[in-house]
């Protein structure tokens, strides 16, 4: 058996480690958050694979690719081409759907062009992204934006009084003059008093040429009504590209396209049917129902195509995405859903001897769905690929052929391999992971008494079936249910819309500014600057990245960004300050022997020992409590993972009281040991008089809840109802709940 061999790896916190990873096997990398898993898998293995791949291109191409530096390692041998399947959302535009991105839609098009009746052409005639197939009314988008007249016009006013409320249509503007100077209206007449025909002229009038005054004299111009004008200058020119998009969207309402009724295709394509259904009917069905419909297609020349469609659909279903329809826009998918969709694409590929790297593929998955996903990881392996998975989930670790446990702790206290070998050995290992694999957390003994209830009544968004449910206050509520059951819809859409004062602690980026770091975000930087200023008898402003004390070359960033068109920017350490960010004279000021630059290089854990002053100490305690003690104070927030973003937001809330907090899968990125830590934090939030509502699959969190709201029974149209509300102990007795079933197994 051959191995990927890494010797002397030193990226980030790695302590000169060497390891052998078996090829064509599943290797799971585990260890507490910040221990160094990503430094091995992404920064060493994936980076070196990408670098070697780039070497194979011509100089011309290479000069146009981002430069991958050699990872800090003595050697990385025997690599195969690596594909990283992470949680970045599949952005794209409204033309990118689950069907197009998985290639299932193009297979269906082929199928319709061969055996559909009456024939509509070949396969482009079924593509909503091709002029041959797209609906002429909505140009293949399925929706149409129209001007919302109630918002665009104030009927109690005349043109002269500013009846047109649209941006760029104010009194005196060019657009306003095309109406007011047209001679077609009484400019002092209130719109409410317009006759039927004046109203029609205002909205949809066309030509004839009218003369109207401009600064340069009188010019002929074709008159055009407001609705058509707005359509022509904004809507058709893809509103998304307009700088004042947000402002314009206020005045637009989006409706299903009246011609194709959302099917995106022209009438010829929609008339073409197989077994009575057109291609849009198929695209609108949930994938798991579509499987049955496609399986029944019985036609001699279709067998191969049908088999190819079925294979991909079954992958979608087995990865827990059977509730998605092919026409679902990829822009509306969550991070976990996006990752699984990418996985389906690769499962359909016939490439072998690749290295597939997964970053926590269980994000967003209920224990029931994890088992199915494990099957797909095995399938990738059995095709002859090497599968590397960064994961904390017990059930995934259990299927590993090989485990690499990184630790013992985070940051400077991690960076070593504490266990390497099979799963059986891990169960006996003395590492944090080993200990947690052996011991299941029991159900908690008592549950808090609610202080009141926040109610949602009659919720019907997406798949919710007229849901009425209470969220108790003053306790920890966990919302559970299989993927697609409606958790995010209920909590993130409906609950938040009706209780807008709730504080959302989610995984979205904390800040995109490269100047933000844990110190600035938590307010710690202000305290630190004050302390340095007091010690040196100078102004606190001197110690700001934005002041004249900052290095003039890099403006206090410590690094220089070189932008390459269409590529990620390339960074290099600033040569003037050597990455220290400040001018020499600023760095001469010290606090207890450390310069401002030294302090920014400290981890939050180190800083907590260094700063004993009450204010900074309190902030640092909070950062350490949320398990981010390994972060450097000056590390750009843009380098934080989703889970880390969520925890740093949490750190900023720890001293508050009387709030309602909503969290979406707070255990993302957390090792079993980190989860215990998180539970302590959630407890202290609740004990301080707050309400916490979390969407979560992690059974350790479920067992720690005071109250459970379980949605289901399944995903998509088979979900959307509350199948259980009560304490975790009552959940154990519940029938018809997948969560109950897996909780019983876990405790059993
Ligand atoms: P894990 O994947 O186990 O959570 P990482 O490999 O991401 O851990 O991190 C290991 C250590 O390296 C942590 O202390 C982390 O803060 C640090 N680190 C990771 N990426 C960077 C970076 N780009 N700059 C500075 N420190 C980093
Ligand atoms: P969960 O959070 O439990 O995984 P969701 O609330 O995300 O479930 O999804 C519930 C149902 O609503 C699913 O059928 C899903 O496909 C559908 N859905 C969610 N978001 C959208 C959206 N933006 N557009 C259309 N359907 C959606
Ligand atoms: Zn249309
Ligand atoms: Zn500099």
TrEMBL record:
Gene3D superfamilies: ABC transporter ATPase domain-like, ABC transporter ATPase like domain, P-loop containing nucleotide triphosphate hydrolases. Keywords: ATP-binding, Cytoplasm, DNA damage, DNA excision, DNA repair, DNA-binding, Excision nuclease, Nucleotide-binding, Repeat. It is found in: Cytoplasm. It holds the Pfam family ABC_tran. Residues 447-744 form the ABC transporter domain. It comes from the Bacteria. CDD domains: ABC_UvrA_I. Transmembrane segments: none annotated. The keyword Repeat applies. PANTHER family: UVRABC SYSTEM PROTEIN A. Belongs to the ABC transporter superfamily. UvrA family. This is UvrABC system protein A. It comes from Streptosporangium brasiliense. The lineage of its organism: Bacteria, Bacillati, Actinomycetota, Actinomycetes, Streptosporangiales.
């Amino acid at each position: 058996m051959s191995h990927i061999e890494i010797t002397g790896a030193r990226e980030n916190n790695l302590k000169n480690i060497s390891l052998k990873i078996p090829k064509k096997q599943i290797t799971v990398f585990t260890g507490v958050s910040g221990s160094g898993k990503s430094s091995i898998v992404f920064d060493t293995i994936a980076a070196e694979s990408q670098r070697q791949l780039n070497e194979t291109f011509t100089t011309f191409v290479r000069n146009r690719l981002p430069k991958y530096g050699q990872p800090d390692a003595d050697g990385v041998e025997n690599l195969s081409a690596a594909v990283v399947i992470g949680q970045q959302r599949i952005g794209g535009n409204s033309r990118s759907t689950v069907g197009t991105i998985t290639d299932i839609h193009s297979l269906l098009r082929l199928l319709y062009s061969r055996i559909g009746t009456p024939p509509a052409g070949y396969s482009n005639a079924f593509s909503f992204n091709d002029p041959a197939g797209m609906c002429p009314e909505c140009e293949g988008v399925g929706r149409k934006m129209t001007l919302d007249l109630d918002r665009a016009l104030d009927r109690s006013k005349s043109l002269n009084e500013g009846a047109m409320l649209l941006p760029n249509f104010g009194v005196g503007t060019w657009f306003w003059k095309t109406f007011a100077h047209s001679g077609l209206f009484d400019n002092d007449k209130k719109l409410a008093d317009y006759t039927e025909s004046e109203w029609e002229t205002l909205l949809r009038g066309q030509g004839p040429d009218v003369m109207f005054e401009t600064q340069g004299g009188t010019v002929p111009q074709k008159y055009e009504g407001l609705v058509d004008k707005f359509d022509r200058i904004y809507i058709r020119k893809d509103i998304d590209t307009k700088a004042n998009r947000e402002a314009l969207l206020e005045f637009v309402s989006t409706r299903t396209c009246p011609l194709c009724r959302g099917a995106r295709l022209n009438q010829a394509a929609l008339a073409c049917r197989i077994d009575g259904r057109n291609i849009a009917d198929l695209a609108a069905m949930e994938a798991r129902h579509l499987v049955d419909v496609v399986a029944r297609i019985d036609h001699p020349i279709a067998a191969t195509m049908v088999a190819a469609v079925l294979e991909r659909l079954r992958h979608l279903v087995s990865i827990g995405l059977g509730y998605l329809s092919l026409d679902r826009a990829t822009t509306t998918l969550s991070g976990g859903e996006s990752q699984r969709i990418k996985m389906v694409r690769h499962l359909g590929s016939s490439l072998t001897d690749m290295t597939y790297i997964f970053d926590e593929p269980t994000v967003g998955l209920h224990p029931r769905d994890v088992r199915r996903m494990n099957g797909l990881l095995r399938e990738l392996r059995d095709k002859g690929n090497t599968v590397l998975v960064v994961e904390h989930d017990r059930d995934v670790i259990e299927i590993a052929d090989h485990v690499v446990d990184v630790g013992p702790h985070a940051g400077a206290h991690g960076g070593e391999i504490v266990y390497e070998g099979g799963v059986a050995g891990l169960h006996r290992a003395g590492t944090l992971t080993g200990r947690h694999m052996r011991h299941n957390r029991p159900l908690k003994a008592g549950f808090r008494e609610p202080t009141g209830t926040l109610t949602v009544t009659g919720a019907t968004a997406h798949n919710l079936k007229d849901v009425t449910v209470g969220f108790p206050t003053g306790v920890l509520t966990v919302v559970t249910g299989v993927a697609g059951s409606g958790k995010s819809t209920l909590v993130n859409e409906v609950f938040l819309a009706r209780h807008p004062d709730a504080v959302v602690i989610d995984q979205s980026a904390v800040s995109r500014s490269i100047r933000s770091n844990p110190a600035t975000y938590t307010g710690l930087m202000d305290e630190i600057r004050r302390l340095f200023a007091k010690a040196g008898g100078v102004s606190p402003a001197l110690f700001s990245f934005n002041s004249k004390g900052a290095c003039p070359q890099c403006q206090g960033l410590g690094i220089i960004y070189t932008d390459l068109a269409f590529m990620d920017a390339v960074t290099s350490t600033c040569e003037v300050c050597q990455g220290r960010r400040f001018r020499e004279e600023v760095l001469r000021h010290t606090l207890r022997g450390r310069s401002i630059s030294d302090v920014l290089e400290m981890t939050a854990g180190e800083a907590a020992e260094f700063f004993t002053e009450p204010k900074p100490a309190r902030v640092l305690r909070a950062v350490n409590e949320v398990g981010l003690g390994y972060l450097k104070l000056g590390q750009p927030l843009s380098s934080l993972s989703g889970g880390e973003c969520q925890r740093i937001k949490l750190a900023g809330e720890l001293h508050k009281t009387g709030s309602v907090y909503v969290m979406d899968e707070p255990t993302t990125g957390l090792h079993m040991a980190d989860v215990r830590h998180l539970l302590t934090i959630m407890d202290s939030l609740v004990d301080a008089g707050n309400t916490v509502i979390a969407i979560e699959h992690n059974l350790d969190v479920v067992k720690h809840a005071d109250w459970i709201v379980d949605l289901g029974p399944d995903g998509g149209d088979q979900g959307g109802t509350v199948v259980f509300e009560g304490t975790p102990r009552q959940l154990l007795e519940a029938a018809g709940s997948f969560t109950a079933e897996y909780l019983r197994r876990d405790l059993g």
